[in-house]
Amino acid sequence: MPTGYTAPIEEDPNFTFEQFVRRCALAFLVESREEGINCKIQRTCEIDPYRQNQVWKAKAELSELEGMTTEQIEKHCLEDYLKRRGAWEETNALFKEKKAKYDTMREKVEAWDGSAFQGLKKFMLEQIETSTQFIVMPAPEPTRQNPGDWYEQQLKWVRQDILRAEERLIEAQQSIQQRNEWVGLLLDTFPLPEDKS
Fold it and tell me: Per-residue pLDDT tens for 81-126?
């Protein structure tokens, strides 16, 4: 049975070795995953702007942090605490709600005679036990940080974000360069019909 790569071997009597090489090369190119097997191989590809934007975004965040006044630091620290506290309360309420549902059902199962159905009661209790193991317990209740400590922590995190974003940008640039060199060699060795001089 032919694959998407080999189908033309059966279907097109004029399908050449060079066409087969180029068709199989698509499996190695990211753009073919988006455009499909019949996409045209581009000699060069540009880096996705997302990576550069992540660096700029992190640097802008650092600049914003470094420009904060004491009052702004205190305000952002409080807002961050209130946000974390709200998320904690929501998670805690959801945990309690789910746990209460399972506890209620467990009580009903335990109160049920069920002797006419050999093993069913035990199985039901096992299912409840298994399911309750995966109810996410909320993290400890958040505490309000000292604004100075909060600020230093934010600076540390943003600086780490910048380093990670720059590393990923360099990796993406290297990947694009390697891809372009590989495709260039491929097209120089097996030129597309319109590339032939």
Answer: 999 999 999 989 999 999 999 999 999 999 999 889 889 999 999 9
In a domain, 23, yes or no: no
Instruction: Note whether residue 75 is domain-resident.
Output: yes
Q: Which residues contact 156 (CB under 8 A, 6 or more apart)?
A: none
Q: Would you say 109 and 128 are in contact if contact means Cβ atoms under 8 Å apart? A: yes
Instruction: State the burial class of residue 67 (Cβ atoms within 10 Å of its Cβ: 0-12, 13-18, 19+).
Output: exposed
At residue 125, what is the residue type? L
CA angle 75, 78, 82 (to 5 degrees): 140
Q: What is the number of domains present in the chain?
A: 1
From the number of C-beta atoms within 10 Å of its C-beta (0-12, 13-18, 19+), residue 58 rates as buried
Q: Say whether pLDDT at 196 is over 60.
A: no
**Burial (CB count within 10 angstroms: exposed 0-12, middle 13-18, buried 19+), residue 180:** middle
In a domain, 106, yes or no: yes
In a domain, 19, yes or no: no
